[in-house]
Write a structure and sequence with these properties.
The protein is built from 2 helices and 8 strands; from the N terminus they run H-H-E-E-E-E-E-E-E-E. The protein is mostly beta strands. The protein has one domain. The protein has a 3-stranded antiparallel sheet. Strands 5-2-7 form a 3-stranded antiparallel sheet, with no helix packed on it. The protein is globular. Keywords: Oxidoreductase.
């Protein structure tokens, strides 16, 4: 159960990703005048018949429900010439106000967009907690999917 980027983790990605175009880099350097976000695109490579992906409605998640959690790559598996990257995500705490949704039997021609980070401030979480889960109706092979991150910039 997580939201893939904490606010610190999202800013780290934008500031340290080597392939971001220079225009996007300049936008992030302008500070609060530039809004940016991280959106994951999640798509199954075969029909999902078990271990569905559930998404929490961010409007039901208070900022106080989120706890930062850091992970670091195994240093023995990392090039010693490179700095270890920061990976910080949110771990949401249980709150009965949370509302969860999922798409049953998602097909290969369908995809989910998951907002993982947004610099825009409002009264709700700026990220969507999500998790796989099992039901008594699950059947078939384990879920397989592809996921990629999109960086979005507004000025």
């Amino acid at each position: 159960l997580s939201a893939d980027q904490s606010y610190r983790g999202g800013k780290y990605i934008v500031n340290n990703f080597k392939h971001i175009p220079e225009v996007a880099k300049r936008l992030t350097e302008t500070g609060t005048t530039c809004r940016f976000g991280v959106i994951n695109v999640w798509q199954p490579v075969s029909p999902v018949t078990r271990d569905a992906l559930a998404l929490c409605d961010r409007r039901t998640v208070d900022e106080q429900d989120l706890r930062p959690w850091q992970s670091h790559p195994d240093p023995t598996q990392w090039d010693p010439k490179l700095p270890l990257p920061l990976s910080e995500i949110w771990r949401p705490m249980y709150n009965p106000k949370h509302k969860w949704y999922y798409a049953s039997e998602l097909q290969t021609d369908e995809a989910l967009l998951i907002k993982c980070f947004d610099t825009k401030l409002d009264e709700h979480s700026r990220a969507v907690p999500h998790s796989a889960f099992r039901t008594p109706l699950d059947h078939g092979p384990p879920r397989e999917s592809v996921e990629f991150r999109c960086l979005a910039f507004w000025d």
